[in-house]
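Quick one - first record:
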Amino acid sequence: MENDQLIELWKEGRTRFTNLLDKAKEADLTKKLGDSPNSAGFLIRHIAEVELLFAKNVFGKKDVKITAKTLIAGKDTGEWTNLTELKDFAIYAGEHLEAAIREQKDWSETIETKEFGKKIKSEALGRILTHTAYHAGQLALVLKYGN
């Protein structure tokens, strides 16, 4: 499969996230679902951070700038309340992950990370796709039913 096809596959999967960003309002960002520890704002930030980590550490895009604040804190700190900043950060993440996917030469190359061990790059692409979709599902529920 060519990189252009993989990008189209990734973009389609990512619409589960981006469509929610288009609907989110600033007042939604502090919403949580029941006793869930994560707010809508935290989930948006977390998704984008992990996409950037994949672009940089898995797919080798060394010019990516990322401080994974949601991972460092390990919990929702309540600071993710600016919708414009979160949307801009998600756009930044998407642009860099797309560029990283486009730059790949060998999808069968093995990479290793402490988070998920050894995987070939095509498996890692599946991993980031499902990570984004998983948390987008959580985000959808928070936006719809959260308080």
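second record:
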Amino acid sequence: MDLAGSNLVELFEKHFGGSVTRNYEWPDDGRGRLRETSAALRYWACNGTTEEPHALRLGESRIHETDEAWISVITPDGPGVLVWFNSD
């Protein structure tokens, strides 16, 4: 499992026990982990001729919408959603 995947498992499955985190007041260390996880993932953007990888950024303005399998991110193309496998 990669860094992002292991961070998501540790945070949402172990720390929160799979509980809903929508409207959770994220402390600085939790936000930091989400930032780190987002930045570890690459989003490939194309300007019409060249494709280049870019790190995702945590969508801070929509962090209250973050849930166990849904994280707001910012891509070079605008707002996006990071989703990951959730066995529920």
